[in-house]
Amino acid sequence: MVGRNVCGALALTVAFASRVMAQDPNAQDMPNPQAMQMQVQHIMQQRPREAEAAARAFLQLVAPERIAGLDSLRQQASAPSGPTYMIDGRPVAGPSAEDQPGNEYWMEVAQLTVQFDMVQKLVQRDSVRAQLVAKMFGLEANARALQRAYRPATETQRTLLRSQIETLISHHFDLENQLRQLEIKDIERRLAEVRAESQRRIDKRAEFIKFAVDDIIRDAIRPR
Predict the structure, then answer these.
(1) What are the tens digits of pLDDT across the range 13-28?
(2) Considering the entire predicted model, what is its pTM?
(3) DSSP percent split of the chain into helix, strand, coil, nearest 5
(4) Domain boundaries of the chain, sorted by first residue
Protein backbone atom coordinates (compact mmCIF):
# COMPACT_ATOMS: atom_id res chain seq x y z
CA MET A 1 0.00 0.00 0.00
CA VAL A 2 1.23 3.48 -0.88
CA GLY A 3 0.04 5.12 2.34
CA ARG A 4 1.45 2.38 4.51
CA ASN A 5 4.93 2.87 3.06
CA VAL A 6 4.94 6.59 3.87
CA CYS A 7 3.58 5.99 7.36
CA GLY A 8 6.25 3.40 7.97
CA ALA A 9 8.97 5.80 6.91
CA LEU A 10 7.59 8.59 9.09
CA ALA A 11 6.50 6.58 12.12
CA LEU A 12 8.45 8.89 14.45
CA THR A 13 5.51 11.30 14.39
CA VAL A 14 3.42 8.77 16.29
CA ALA A 15 6.31 7.83 18.58
CA PHE A 16 6.86 11.44 19.64
CA ALA A 17 3.18 12.05 20.34
CA SER A 18 2.96 8.78 22.26
CA ARG A 19 5.79 9.84 24.58
CA VAL A 20 4.11 13.19 25.21
CA MET A 21 0.86 11.50 26.20
CA ALA A 22 2.72 8.92 28.28
CA GLN A 23 4.14 11.73 30.44
CA ASP A 24 0.60 12.51 31.61
CA PRO A 25 -0.25 10.17 34.52
CA ASN A 26 -3.95 10.60 33.70
CA ALA A 27 -3.56 9.81 30.01
CA GLN A 28 -5.95 7.23 28.63
CA ASP A 29 -5.73 5.21 25.41
CA MET A 30 -2.17 6.24 24.64
CA PRO A 31 -1.51 5.68 20.93
CA ASN A 32 1.16 3.47 19.45
CA PRO A 33 1.94 2.51 15.85
CA GLN A 34 0.52 -1.01 16.21
CA ALA A 35 -2.77 0.19 17.71
CA MET A 36 -3.11 2.89 15.07
CA GLN A 37 -2.53 0.36 12.28
CA MET A 38 -5.28 -1.84 13.72
CA GLN A 39 -7.63 1.15 13.77
CA VAL A 40 -6.72 1.92 10.16
CA GLN A 41 -7.45 -1.67 9.13
CA HIS A 42 -10.78 -1.60 10.97
CA ILE A 43 -11.90 1.58 9.21
CA MET A 44 -10.82 0.19 5.84
CA GLN A 45 -12.91 -2.92 6.43
CA GLN A 46 -15.99 -1.22 7.87
CA ARG A 47 -15.86 1.93 5.71
CA PRO A 48 -17.97 4.11 8.06
CA ARG A 49 -19.30 7.29 6.45
CA GLU A 50 -18.46 9.35 9.52
CA ALA A 51 -14.78 8.53 8.87
CA GLU A 52 -15.01 10.26 5.51
CA ALA A 53 -16.27 13.44 7.19
CA ALA A 54 -13.54 13.29 9.85
CA ALA A 55 -10.82 12.71 7.26
CA ARG A 56 -12.00 15.61 5.13
CA ALA A 57 -12.18 17.92 8.16
CA PHE A 58 -8.65 17.00 9.24
CA LEU A 59 -7.29 17.39 5.72
CA GLN A 60 -8.91 20.81 5.51
CA LEU A 61 -7.02 21.70 8.69
CA VAL A 62 -3.54 20.36 7.91
CA ALA A 63 -3.32 20.15 4.09
CA PRO A 64 -6.25 21.89 2.36
CA GLU A 65 -4.43 21.69 -0.95
CA ARG A 66 -5.00 17.91 -0.85
CA ILE A 67 -8.83 18.08 -0.72
CA ALA A 68 -9.13 17.82 -4.50
CA GLY A 69 -6.84 14.81 -4.45
CA LEU A 70 -9.02 13.09 -1.85
CA ASP A 71 -12.09 13.76 -3.99
CA SER A 72 -10.27 12.28 -6.97
CA LEU A 73 -9.47 9.13 -5.01
CA ARG A 74 -13.14 8.88 -4.03
CA GLN A 75 -14.22 9.09 -7.68
CA GLN A 76 -11.71 6.40 -8.60
CA ALA A 77 -13.08 4.25 -5.78
CA SER A 78 -16.58 4.58 -7.22
CA ALA A 79 -15.47 3.49 -10.67
CA PRO A 80 -15.23 -0.24 -11.51
CA SER A 81 -11.70 -1.61 -11.83
CA GLY A 82 -10.12 -4.82 -12.98
CA PRO A 83 -11.51 -7.25 -15.57
CA THR A 84 -15.23 -7.36 -16.35
CA TYR A 85 -17.15 -10.62 -16.36
CA MET A 86 -20.57 -11.48 -17.79
CA ILE A 87 -22.89 -12.98 -15.18
CA ASP A 88 -26.48 -13.73 -16.19
CA GLY A 89 -25.98 -11.53 -19.21
CA ARG A 90 -24.88 -8.52 -17.13
CA PRO A 91 -21.34 -7.07 -16.98
CA VAL A 92 -19.83 -7.27 -13.49
CA ALA A 93 -16.44 -5.81 -12.53
CA GLY A 94 -14.07 -8.37 -11.11
CA PRO A 95 -11.46 -7.72 -8.40
CA SER A 96 -8.45 -5.60 -9.29
CA ALA A 97 -5.21 -7.39 -9.89
CA GLU A 98 -3.61 -5.51 -7.00
CA ASP A 99 -6.30 -4.33 -4.60
CA GLN A 100 -10.04 -4.29 -4.24
CA PRO A 101 -11.72 -1.14 -5.60
CA GLY A 102 -11.65 1.71 -3.13
CA ASN A 103 -8.85 0.38 -0.95
CA GLU A 104 -6.53 3.27 -1.81
CA TYR A 105 -9.22 5.84 -1.00
CA TRP A 106 -10.22 4.15 2.24
CA MET A 107 -6.59 3.72 3.27
CA GLU A 108 -6.20 7.49 3.01
CA VAL A 109 -9.48 8.14 4.83
CA ALA A 110 -8.55 5.70 7.59
CA GLN A 111 -5.12 7.18 8.17
CA LEU A 112 -6.43 10.74 8.27
CA THR A 113 -9.25 9.75 10.65
CA VAL A 114 -6.92 7.99 13.09
CA GLN A 115 -4.43 10.86 12.95
CA PHE A 116 -7.23 13.37 13.57
CA ASP A 117 -8.29 11.49 16.70
CA MET A 118 -4.68 11.39 17.89
CA VAL A 119 -4.18 15.14 17.45
CA GLN A 120 -7.46 15.88 19.27
CA LYS A 121 -6.29 13.85 22.27
CA LEU A 122 -2.82 15.39 22.20
CA VAL A 123 -4.06 18.99 22.06
CA GLN A 124 -5.76 18.50 25.43
CA ARG A 125 -2.36 17.81 27.01
CA ASP A 126 0.08 19.89 24.99
CA SER A 127 -1.17 22.32 22.35
CA VAL A 128 2.34 23.25 21.18
CA ARG A 129 3.28 19.67 20.41
CA ALA A 130 -0.16 19.02 18.94
CA GLN A 131 0.40 21.80 16.40
CA LEU A 132 3.77 20.36 15.41
CA VAL A 133 2.36 16.84 15.08
CA ALA A 134 -0.56 18.13 12.99
CA LYS A 135 1.90 19.85 10.64
CA MET A 136 3.88 16.62 10.35
CA PHE A 137 0.72 14.70 9.48
CA GLY A 138 -0.07 17.34 6.85
CA LEU A 139 3.35 16.83 5.29
CA GLU A 140 2.79 13.08 5.31
CA ALA A 141 -0.53 13.52 3.48
CA ASN A 142 1.29 15.49 0.79
CA ALA A 143 4.06 12.87 0.65
CA ARG A 144 1.49 10.10 0.14
CA ALA A 145 -0.10 12.08 -2.70
CA LEU A 146 3.27 12.51 -4.41
CA GLN A 147 4.03 8.84 -3.84
CA ARG A 148 0.79 7.89 -5.62
CA ALA A 149 1.68 10.22 -8.49
CA TYR A 150 5.16 8.72 -8.77
CA ARG A 151 3.98 5.25 -9.79
CA PRO A 152 2.52 6.16 -13.25
CA ALA A 153 4.88 9.12 -13.88
CA THR A 154 7.47 9.38 -16.62
CA GLU A 155 11.16 9.50 -15.76
CA THR A 156 11.20 13.28 -16.20
CA GLN A 157 8.17 13.67 -13.95
CA ARG A 158 9.68 11.32 -11.39
CA THR A 159 12.76 13.53 -11.10
CA LEU A 160 10.54 16.48 -10.18
CA LEU A 161 8.40 14.39 -7.84
CA ARG A 162 11.48 13.11 -6.03
CA SER A 163 12.65 16.69 -5.50
CA GLN A 164 9.24 17.62 -4.09
CA ILE A 165 9.19 14.62 -1.78
CA GLU A 166 12.70 15.50 -0.59
CA THR A 167 11.51 19.02 0.29
CA LEU A 168 8.59 17.61 2.28
CA ILE A 169 10.75 15.15 4.20
CA SER A 170 13.30 17.88 4.91
CA HIS A 171 10.55 20.00 6.47
CA HIS A 172 9.27 16.94 8.34
CA PHE A 173 12.77 16.36 9.72
CA ASP A 174 12.94 19.98 10.94
CA LEU A 175 9.62 19.61 12.77
CA GLU A 176 10.86 16.34 14.25
CA ASN A 177 13.89 18.19 15.62
CA GLN A 178 11.63 20.82 17.17
CA LEU A 179 9.79 18.03 19.00
CA ARG A 180 13.12 16.59 20.14
CA GLN A 181 14.18 19.97 21.53
CA LEU A 182 10.93 20.22 23.49
CA GLU A 183 11.51 16.70 24.80
CA ILE A 184 15.07 17.59 25.84
CA LYS A 185 13.79 20.65 27.72
CA ASP A 186 11.23 18.47 29.53
CA ILE A 187 13.92 15.97 30.51
CA GLU A 188 16.20 18.76 31.74
CA ARG A 189 13.36 20.28 33.76
CA ARG A 190 12.46 16.94 35.37
CA LEU A 191 16.14 16.25 36.08
CA ALA A 192 16.49 19.64 37.76
CA GLU A 193 13.43 18.90 39.91
CA VAL A 194 14.82 15.50 40.97
CA ARG A 195 18.19 17.02 41.81
CA ALA A 196 16.54 19.79 43.83
CA GLU A 197 14.46 17.27 45.79
CA SER A 198 17.52 15.10 46.38
CA GLN A 199 19.48 18.08 47.69
CA ARG A 200 16.58 19.12 49.90
CA ARG A 201 16.51 15.67 51.52
CA ILE A 202 20.29 15.77 52.01
CA ASP A 203 20.07 19.21 53.65
CA LYS A 204 17.34 17.96 56.00
CA ARG A 205 18.86 14.53 56.55
CA ALA A 206 18.82 14.74 60.36
CA GLU A 207 15.20 15.92 60.38
CA PHE A 208 14.03 13.10 58.08
CA ILE A 209 15.87 10.50 60.16
CA LYS A 210 14.36 11.88 63.41
CA PHE A 211 10.84 11.75 61.95
CA ALA A 212 11.36 8.16 60.79
CA VAL A 213 12.75 7.01 64.14
CA ASP A 214 9.98 8.77 66.10
CA ASP A 215 7.39 7.06 63.90
CA ILE A 216 8.96 3.65 64.53
CA ILE A 217 9.05 4.24 68.32
CA ARG A 218 5.43 5.44 68.40
CA ASP A 219 4.36 2.32 66.58
CA ALA A 220 6.37 0.16 69.02
CA ILE A 221 4.65 1.52 72.16
CA ARG A 222 1.16 1.85 70.64
CA PRO A 223 -1.35 -0.28 72.56
CA ARG A 224 -2.19 -3.50 70.75
Answers:
(1) 666 565 655 555 444 4
(2) 0.75
(3) 75, 5, 20
(4) 2-176
